[in-house]
Amino acid sequence: AQSVTQLDSQVPVFEEAPVELRCNYSSSVSVYLFWYVQYPNQGLQLLLKYLSGSTLVKGINGFEAEFNKSQTSFHLRKPSVHISDTAEYFCAVSGDNTDKLIFGTGTRLQVFP
Amino acid sequence: DAGVIQSPRHEVTEMGQEVTLRCKPISGHDYLFWYRQTMMRGLELLIYFNNNVPIDDSGMPEDRFSAKMPNASFSTLKIQPSEPRDSAVYFCASSLRLTRGGYGYTFGSGTRLTVV
Fold it and tell me: What is the mean pLDDT of residues B94-106?
């Protein structure tokens, strides 16, 4: 069975600074990895996904993530954050042996001016 | 494409009352998921359907919860009787299996349920 761990529940950062949100997964089969963002009082929106191929995945709003099979990680990065990036970010995993998407507990990114 | 549509956006009800949450998935999506989000437990998968058939309801907390999908364009989640601990945001998501694997989940905006 797949599982995903988001190592940080909160990440405070100043505007224009770089940020990395960490995600580690566990799976015995091929995995598909996702990052979702949830702005206040909204549903989850897909940021990016890794299905296969290039390990560096680029998403919306300037975010990117790198799939690292040896480290079983899929960390999300942005070189320069904006106030508007303040939100909850969820890492999620699925695989060929399941129909379900398993979510992490979320990381709250707080960007300060 | 209007996306996944949930109604109502907000629901306030008294303990003991029946509550029905509604979801219209994206046309053509063959999977539908109901999630519950709370501060304490995060995102919990309650139940999901494939081609209108319930596949896994192991996340449904109690017999007070029931879900139906009478056709490909409509699903309901019912709580009867409701209790204060059911207060949460309930999300519906629909999905299509991607040709390269994985799923393209699209979430609705959620229903914020408050049981007083």
Answer: 71
DSSP 8-state code for residue B26: P
Q: Contacts by B2-8 with C-beta closer than 8 Å and gap 24+?
A: B3/B106, B3/B108, B4/A43, B4/B92, B4/B93, B4/B94, B4/B106, B4/B107, B4/B108, B5/B108, B6/B90, B6/B91, B6/B92, B6/B108, B6/B109, B6/B110, B6/B111, B7/B111, B8/B111
Report in angstroms the alpha-carbon separations of B27 from A37, A76, B73, B95.
Answer: 23, 31, 7, 10
Inspect the interface and report whether the beta carbons of A45 and B107 lie closer than 8 Å.
yes
Rounded distance between C-alpha atoms, residue B49 and residue B94, angstroms = 9
**Residue B31 sits at the chain A interface (C-beta within 8 Å):** yes
**Span A56-80, pLDDT tens digits:** 999 999 999 999 999 999 999 999 9
Angstroms from B15 CA to nearest CA on chain A: 24
Give the count of Cβ contacts less than 8 A between chain A and B.
56
| Predicted pLDDT of residue B1 | 65
